[in-house]
Design brief:
The chain is mostly beta strands. It contains no helices and eleven strands. The strands form two sheets. Strands 2, 4, 5, 6, 9, 10 and 11 form a seven-stranded mixed β-sheet that branches. It has a four-stranded antiparallel β-sheet with strand order 1-3-8-7, with no helix packed on it. The chain is elongated, with a radius of gyration of 14 Å.
Length: about 120
Amino acid sequence: QVQLAESGGGLVQAGGSLRLSCAASGSIFSLVAMGWYRQAPGKQRDLVAAITSGGSTNYADSVKGRFTISRDNAKNTVYLQMNSLKAEDTAVYYCNADLARTASSGRVTYWGQGTQVTVSS
């Protein structure tokens, strides 16, 4: 019923830029927060950036000053602008959404399928 559609991943040279998009669709009563996580081979999945419905943002220390998260509430879409990319940014990036499907239901977390970002040196 609820789906997260990701796009924008790909191959880029070090120092370049990419913009990731994630659109939430389906039955959504309240979208509390959306964000991006990443997971490199052999490592755990870590938060990259997140944004709440009120516009408050959180960033991993490793991406502060380089990445910017934003959202379009009318489209239930979150964006991640990634600048000055480094080889260590290479990972699968996963979209995340915390939402309530109805007025009476509890908050549930949804995940996208992941999109590969590869940065070449």
